[in-house]
Amino acid sequence: MKHSLLAIALMSAVTPFALAQNDSPAYSQCMQAAQTTLDMNNCNGAEIEQQDARLNTAYKKAMAALESAQQAQLRDAQRSWIKYRDTNCKLYFSLTGGTIDQLNGAGCVLDMTKARADELSALAEH
Q1: Could you tell me if 104 and 92 are in contact, meaning their C-beta atoms sit under 8 angstroms apart?
Q2: Which of 3, 68, 75, 121 could connect to 58 by a Cys-Cys bridge, CB 3.0–4.6 Å?
Q3: How many other β-carbons are positioned within 10 Å of the β-carbon of residue 19?
């Protein structure tokens, strides 16, 4: 029973990340060419860097679009979000004890970073 629940948890965790990650053509090409877990981890790392840069740009634009009191609120929210993302994804880095954990953890970081960058971009447009 424990193994069945773990398998279900892994499948439900991996599927959204795999679908969301297909947004970047460079990432998709990298993953298609990847032959090893290390190759896949390198693809994830490169895409996380790209999405993190996009997140930082969106954050700066959102801050510029807000009034001073709102900027303080966004700063606090962003700090809390970073802690949440890191704590949440830490679970995926340790679920099975195997090498798949690196891919699942990176997928979590990537998916959450992309979603937050999208959210901040929309905030900047209001």
Answers
A1: yes
A2: 121
A3: 10
Note whether 108 and 17 are within 8 A (CB). yes
Structure tokens given for 106: 């990176």
Six token digits for residue 119: 């959210």
Are the C-beta atoms of residues 94 and 101 closer than 8 Å to each other? yes
Q: What is the pTM of this model?
A: 0.79
Residue 52 in 3-state DSSP?
Answer: helix
Architecture in CATH for domain 2-125: Up-down Bundle (1.20)
